Amino acid sequence: EWDWEGFRHAAAAFPKPSGIDFSYGTAGFRLDASLLASTVFRAGVLAALRSLSMKSATGLVITASHNPASDNGVKLVDPGGGMLAMRWEPHANAMANASDEHALTEVVRKIIKEESIAFGDESCGKVLLARDTRPSGQILLAAASQGVAAVAGVAPVDMGILTTPQLHWMVCALNKDQPATEVNYYSHLSQAFRTLEQLRPDKSVRRSSLASESIIIDGANGVGALKLLQLQELLENLQFEVRNCGRAGEGGLNDGVGADFVQKEKAFPRNFDKSDALKKNQLQSLVEDVEEKPIITTTLVAGYGDVRVGVVQTAYANGASTKYLQQELGLEVSLTSTGVKYLHEKASEYDIGIYFEANGHGTILFREEFLAFLRTKHMWGKPSIHRLLAVSEMINQAVGDALSGILMVEIVLMYLGWSIQDWNDIYADLPSKQLKVKVANRAAIRTTASETKVVYPSELQKAIDTEVGKYDGGRSFVRPSGTEDIVRIYAEATTQSTADALAQAVAFHVY
Ligand code: 16G
Q1: Residue 47 pLDDT exceeds 70
Q2: Which residue of 45, 103, 134, 249 sits 20 to 30 Å from the alpha carbon of 151, by its own alpha carbon?
Q3: What are the sequence ranges of the domains in the chain?
Q4: Which residues, including other chains, have CB under 8 Å from residue 251's CB and lie 6 or more apart?
Q5: Which branch of life, at top level (predicted)?
Q6: Does this model's pTM top 0.80?
Q7: Which of the listed residues 132, 359, 445, 451 should we mutate to test ligand 1's pocket, taking the one with most ligand atoms within 8 A of CB?
């Protein structure tokens, strides 16, 4: 039986700061690090309860991703390796906002009842914990660990400093009885990369830059830079030059560097300058390539029936990319709300579901039954099937992962014999502009699920329609941010100046 007295005692060590309403947003709880200890302890408790309820390991990661270094955050990983089931988010909010240890105990009791969580000899949960390189991470991870340990029968496992996708991958691996180690992660990815290199039909075709140059990567002075260097050690034919590794003199985490900075500011990251402009399209930022362009070749698999391949985007996807996917490649494209959890869910409806956000988040999902079918075909020794299986191994299906994404892009370019310039030239992006506006209450704006239209206030949508009508090929939408206290404005048009003007005009109506 649960030691409630001990639980209350543990919880009392992490009092909730008053006057803050915590909300499990698009990517978990995120706030100034100094305000997070109680939330992180409670998230540890929740991850433990989720583990018991699913009878599988779960994960918890301390990170605030591309936010400033002084922020931090906490995010939970479900047993399959994906994000916490959305159905459990209200539990997270109720726990984070409980006023003291007594109120928290009541909330926890209620969740145990509602979710029919059983305790006893049988129950043995596990929560894998990790953090990024933020200075506040160590102390917050310790708080999360205490939260996990406060739940009877659940063990916290400190995995140390990892990228978020690595932790997702490990939770998934552990629940499939595979070794949940960093070494296994790197060997898995690099092995699939080698297999794909060996299986390329025309070995003389090589991406030109591969032989002579390395891939220049902006590490954003964060955790990904360190991990890339580790991955590098297992790759013979691929050379990374990682800038902004967090070395002395390179600057701070996310300070003028990183994919979010490059995408939103349309500027070079620190330590890249005009001399890199010739190689401009080689700039990759760690969350992924900045202007992600789709290259997709579909394979027909005899005997399976229709292989359903679909692409999932958000309203931020450049209109030219959507057109290219639909008209040139003949693929099914659907739109969801912004945030990995929505895209991932939609992509899982396909045999091969590909999702990408304009800011770089994304991956490819293979339906388990489809993979099982391929594995039986694999026995026949067909290279095309072997390749598809290797892709399913190399891509991190738990969640989008820049490390595996970089390998994927390299392989595809190698197969096609393309340079990054060739890739960039498959279509021309429409000029676009993003603005943000601070408002008193961003929740006052509500949109449709695809976020392309404002539902409330309806006059705002009418005003946007009127503005859009004034510009040739114009498109614009607004939505409240899920990670910052602002409203975002997006506009697209046939020239940069009209895209800028449209964004300004729409922003004026949001104020
Ligand atoms: C978070 C989301 C990302 C989304 C972004 C939108 C995850 C792992 N990350 O970074 O998917 O694009 O928020 O931010 O879910 P916004 O709501 O501030 O525009």
Answers
A1: yes
A2: 134
A3: 4-179, 292-401, 432-510
A4: 221, 244, 257, 270, 271
A5: Eukaryota
A6: yes
A7: 359
